[in-house]
Design goal:
The complex is a heterodimer of chains A (about 325) and B (about 475).
Chain A: H1 2-22, E1 52-55, E2 67-69, E3 72-75, E4 80-83, E5 88-89, E6 102-110, E7 120-128, H2 139-148, E8 155-165, E9 168-177, E10 182-191, E11 194-202, H3 205-214, E12 237-238, E13 248-250, E14 263-270, E15 276-284, H4 286-296, E16 300-301, E17 304-306, E18 309-311, E19 313-320
Parallel strand pairs in A: 12-19
Antiparallel strand pairs in A: 1-15, 2-3, 3-4, 5-6, 6-7, 7-11, 8-9, 9-10, 10-11, 13-16, 14-15, 14-19, 17-18
Chain B: H1 2-17, H2 43-46, H3 49-63, E1 78-79, H4 84-87, E2 139-141, E3 144-146, E4 152-157, E5 161-162, E6 165-166, H5 183-188, E7 193-195, H6 203-207, H7 211-220, H8 253-265, H9 279-283, H10 312-315, H11 318-327, H12 342-354, H13 357-360, E8 365-366, E9 380-381, E10 389-391, E11 409-411, H14 433-438, H15 448-457, H16 460-472
Antiparallel strand pairs in B: 1-6, 2-5, 2-7, 3-4, 8-9, 10-11
Helix pairs in contact in B: 3-11, 8-11, 12-16
């Protein structure tokens, strides 16, 4: 009986669209639909995305691919595992990567059940050194520039200083706002030519110091430090501007169907044979990503050798309309 | 007993330290005790009789009510209202949506009065569900086209303006018979979004900020430790930074005015020379029916430059006059004392910067030399905007793409004149500043951390200072 009932419902379900069609439902597809919709668009979903991140495959980890689960933030791309303080959580995910290579990896705050006396924020961000607007080639450069560019609203509480966190070197920079009675603690290290920054914001200095102390529990890749790029293991060596000059032995320019004016920052991984193995679009319209993918698949590179052995190389290429040329004082983002 | 006394002492001391705790922070509301602080021409315009004549003629044209035929022809066949100034009226001509009973009492939402005022025929037009007497004035868009079953099709982006009213049934509209868009079906499909009028005070200054200034400001803000990035929308023709409209989709005031005249009032002009069908009418390959074309009987475009004019202001087209009026409008004058007093406002201004609001809401930008009037040149535009587009996340996303801006990207709304605005955000969903601030945090939004600082880390008195500062603008 039950099975028959299900069958009847199924048949009815299958025939409903046909019945609707037979009754002449499709009057038009424009502004005047007077049919009763059977489906509602979801709320609070971004369906029209504009320039957005994408990649050539789903297997290769991406910087924005980190996730928070069971109180632990893990980012496979950066080789980073960070256990959140007790009763802290991420309520809202961050925006997509910017066209200047800025990532909001996690925005962490006390959960509703948090019982502490004062609250704060932990922001984990990363700046891709291949695409930064700042003339910075490494962590120290970038944090010194932040220090130099600090507005009059803030007071430096400790200039950029090298510290050890979780057995890795970080640059620490402390500043605060007297009027807001808030303190910023920035701890930055470099991984795969990105400056990964932990930003603690709060009123309570002791709470913040406790949170920083807890950072010692996190695990980081071997290369994490003020300057990085050597790669190792599954991680390619990162080299700024590798896709230039004699390194490129075959080059095909993308054919764009539509003229646009947005910057299109692209990170690629070149395999040991000199072919493009992986493409990551930080920000691109789908048609741009398609055209660039078609072109890059035809590019060939000189093999990169270290001690006579070929290595994979990760580098960046800016297609489209670059926001601003790097200044002449910009330094290379790699140690190679 | 001792414990009770100690608790009372602690409570007293806490109240001294954080006086705002006793009274929760509130939006002071529309500033009404300083007069109307917007809508005046630049001083250099007032000082020049020719420029002032242009401004005043533009103002009159801005407020003129259009009809299908007659002395002010061209209205329709579809439109949202019959006058620029009816929508852009709070707190003065050039502003934004009014509401009854709120200073300076401009009046009810004029869209709610179109039948009563004889602008549309009540037997052929209904007031859409989202047009309320107390506002805000709204235009509607369907983010997606409908499929044949009446469902919104996410693979078919639309996003064009769906004009609210038609001329059908008016005595001057002949046999033109057009239906209104299916707003109720769109609501049922969750396929409708709204926009309210952007205020135009100070827009001549915004137009006169060079791209290099905007780019330098963008670079200077890159070191924020707040999760904010931003980018620019660009004009599709020359690639320069566009800046007008909720998504910075329009390059110039001329384009802004020409498009609005065509889209909002249905008047063809030298920038948009045809009557505009709805997106669906074009999609179906039909366009407007023949009996709805050339209703004014004067040919196209309906608004033109008049070669027979006898003075600059009588030669100039309506669109040209709108531009003259808007570009010569001075920026609103903030108050240094109201609401909340000078100390609170000054403190709120510093807090606004310190917690990161000013990263996007850039307090001021310098203009370049002006060939129009001295007041626009080498001036300080206190617009509180970087004119960049930012991801605002899922709460504010409207799934409409304009130029390079995606469904959740919006231009940083300029805050000058905020103290005398009634409705906030692109769709006017908030009339309380706290509601507008709260909407800044959501999944995928750039302002989430800043909003969390405001919400969780400031004391109520600090929050009140920021609210007072905002209402002083």
């Amino acid at each position: 009986m039950h099975i028959k009932c299900v069958r009847s419902l199924l048949l009815f379900g299958l025939s409903a669209p046909l019945l609707a069609g037979a009754q002449g439902a499709p009057q038009n597809g424009g502004d005047f639909s007077d049919n009763s919709p059977t489906k509602k668009l979801p709320t609070d979903v971004i369906l029209v995305k504009g320039a957005w991140p994408s990649s050539s495959d789903f297997a290769t980890p991406l910087p924005e691919g980190g996730r928070l689960a069971d109180g632990v933030y893990k980012n496979q791309y950066f080789g980073l595992t960070y256990a959140l303080p007790t009763d802290w959580t991420e309520k809202y995910t961050g925006p997509p990567p910017s066209d200047t290579g800025y990532y909001v990896l996690a925005q962490i705050r006390p959960a509703d059940k948090f019982k502490g006396k004062s609250k704060g924020s932990i922001l984990i961000v990363a700046q891709d050194l291949f695409f930064t607007l700042a003339p910075a080639g490494n962590t120290l450069d970038l944090i010194y520039l932040h220090n130099k560019g600090l507005s009059a609203d803030y007071r430096v509480e400790q200039p950029p200083t090298l510290v050890r966190i979780a057995n890795h070197s970080f640059v620490r920079f402390d500043y605060g706002s007297p009027v807001a009675e808030l303190h910023w603690r920035v701890l930055a290290t470099q991984i795969r030519c990105h400056v990964v920054q932990f930003v603690f914001i709060g009123r309570d200095i002791k709470l913040t110091e406790d949170l920083i102390e807890e950072m010692n529990k996190m695990s980081l890749p071997e290369e994490a430090g003020p300057v990085s790029g050597r790669g190792g293991g599954d991680v390619p060596v990162c080299i700024k501007d590798y896709a230039n000059g004699e390194n490129v032995t075959e080059r095909v320019d993308p054919l764009f169907a539509e003229r646009r004016f947005n910057p299109v920052p692209v990170r690629i991984i070149i395999d040991k044979e000199g072919k493009v193995k992986h493409i990551h679009f930080l920000s691109a319209f789908p048609d741009q990503a398609k055209a660039i993918t078609d072109a890059l698949s035809q590019w060939r590179f000189r093999r990169y050798l270290r001690d006579g052995k070929p290595l994979e190389v990760e580098t960046g290429i800016m297609f489209g309309h670059a926001p601003r040329p790097m200044t002449s004082t910009a330094k290379n983002a790699a140690t190679e | 007993m001792k414990t009770t006394k100690l608790a009372l002492v602690l409570a007293f001391l806490t109240a001294l330290r954080f006086p705002g705790i006793a009274l929760a922070q509130t939006d002071p509301g529309v500033r009404s005790n300083t007069g109307i602080n917007a809508g005046q021409p630049l001083a250099s315009v007032s000082a020049n009789p020719n420029d002032l004549a242009f401004f005043q003629t533009g103002l009159a044209q801005f407020n003129e009510h259009q009809t299908v035929t007659g002395d002010n022809p061209g209205l329709g066949p579809r439109f949202n209202l019959d006058s620029c100034g009816a929508c852009h009226s709070q707190p003065a001509s050039g502003g934004t949506s009014p509401s009854s009973g709120i200073f300076p009492n401009v009046g009810p939402n004029p869209q709610s009065q179109v039948i009563a005022n004889g602008i549309v025929n009540g037997s052929t037009n209904a007031i859409p569900f989202f047009v309320l007497v107390n506002g805000p004035v709204r235009e509607a868009r369907f983010p997606f086209f409908f499929d044949q079953f009446g469902n919104a099709n996410p693979n078919a982006p639309n996003g064009g303006v769906e004009d609210l009213f038609t001329v059908s049934g008016r005595s001057d509209a002949g046999s033109c018979s057009l239906p209104q868009p299916s707003f109720n079906a769109a609501r049922a499909a969750n396929n409708i979004i709204f926009r309210i009028p952007t205020p135009t005070f100070g827009t001549g200054l915004m137009a006169n900020i060079d791209d290099s200034t905007l780019l330098a400001n963008h670079a200077a803000q890159a070191g924020n430790n707040l999760g904010i990035s931003g980018t620019f929308n660009h004009n599709g023709n020359d690639g320069t930074i566009s800046r007008f409209g909720w998504k910075a989709q329009n390059k110039s005031l001329m384009i802004f005015a020409g498009e609005a005249y065509n889209v909002e009032m249905g008047i063809s002009n030298e920038l948009f020379p045809q009557d505009r069908p709805l997106p669906g009418e074009d999609q179906l390959g039909s366009g407007l029916p023949a009996n709805c074309l050339n209703l004014a009987g004067i040919g196209y475009p309906e608004d033109i430059t008049h070669s027979g004019g006898t003075s600059a202001s009588t030669v100039t087209s309506d669109v040209g006059l709108f531009v003259a009026f808007m570009q010569f409008l001075d920026q609103p004058t903030p108050s240094t004392t109201s609401p909340g007093g000078a100390t609170s406002i000054a403190n709120g201004r510093r807090l606004f910067s310190a917690i990161g609001c000013a990263t996007c809401h850039t307090p001021s930008l310098a203009t370049q030399p002006s060939n129009l009037t001295p007041g626009l040149g080498n001036a300080t535009a206190s617009l509180f905007s970087d004119i960049e587009i930012h991801h605002m996340g899922t709460v504010l996303a409207d799934n409409v793409s304009q130029g390079g801006a995606g469904g959740d990207q919006f231009r940083t709304a300029p805050l000058w004149g905020l103290g005398q605005r009634i409705f906030f955000l692109h769709d006017g969903r908030c009339s309380d500043l706290l509601c507008a601030i709260e909407a800044h945090e959501s999944n995928g939004g750039e302002a989430t951390t800043v909003e969390a600082i405001f919400d969780q880390q400031l004391t109520p008195s600090q929050q009140q200072d920021i609210l007072n500062f905002l209402r002083s603008l």
